[in-house]
Amino acid sequence: MRHDAFWLDASDAVPLYVNHWFGEAPPRAVVMLSHGMAEHSGRYARLGQDLVAAGFELYALDQRGHGRSAEHGVLGQYAAEDGWSKVIGDLASLNHHIRQRHSQAPIFLLGHSMGSYIGQAYLMQHSSSLQGAILSGSNYQPVALYRVAALLARFERWRQGPTGRSALIEFLSFGSFNKAFKPNRSTFDWLSRDPLEVDKYVSDPLCGFRCTNQLWLDLLGGLQSITPPKNLAQIDPDLPLLVIGGERDPVSDGRRLHDLAAALRRAGIRDVQLNLYPDARHELLNESNRDEVTRDLIDWLEHALAHSRTQPHAKETA
Predict the structure, then answer these.
(1) Which of 13, 114, 182, 301 could make an S-S bridge to 37, C-beta 3.0–4.6 Å?
(2) What is the extent of the structural domain holding 17?
(3) What are phi and psi of 77, to 5 degrees?
(4) Please, how many CA atoms are within 13 Å of residue 37, restricted to the half-sphere of its CB?
(5) Among residues 64, 84, 249, 253, which one has the least CA distance to residue 153?
(6) What angle do CA 64, 68, 71 make, to 5 degrees?
(7) Residue 313: per-residue pLDDT
(8) For the chain, which ranges sit under pLDDT 70?
């Protein structure tokens, strides 16, 4: 396996840091990754190694306000304005970069947690640029909940300013996640059953930080836009989708991934597969059963390649 990293200019010329894992031979397909909140793309090296061994390549960008991309902005903030549109556009820029270098290779999107929400918005606008997509550690809740949360975020922005970092928002969003896993070793036990992986997250200075009020407002506005089935119907109905998560992930409580898969199907998407893993928590690719998850992910990619959108789809599974 080989690895390089480079700076990619976004549409507004903001530099984005990208990690790239690849092999000697041209790839059978390319995966582009959209990571979660308060983490960064460098954490996906193990996935990159496994994908390369199976004949794929992985491109993973540091989202705005995250990882090394935050060197050209504010840690924990997409942008001063129009942040949601910009992070969607960043995926389009990455896709364009990949297409310039691999003109014939199919491209898949893998979005984790926050990245799965950005990924869904990207799919609504750019389905034709992809062969399929994987949504990991995602969620699906009523639009009304996001509207109420946005009111709180607006109040906190008024009280602290756009770059303020609200302890109240953090408590209401993440505060209860560890309760199901007492006694707790750390405040991030909800991420994985593997204590070594949790410790690596805790010790990483680019992980676990508190995001700004403006990012929360951008994110909550984005969640309101991707939740209605009539909006999800903008996704190409022939695009194969894989939804994966842990049954003990407090972000979705497992059951809300069933709701997400059902909403995607109601929106008309014909090939939606749902894989739930018993006892697993939020970060499946850093979980104790990560080898199983990675095998299943690669098997799904193989299946999607064998059954392209120009051919009849396999039967939906859940």
Answers:
(1) 114
(2) 2-141+226-306
(3) -140, 130
(4) 23
(5) 84
(6) 75
(7) 36
(8) 309-318
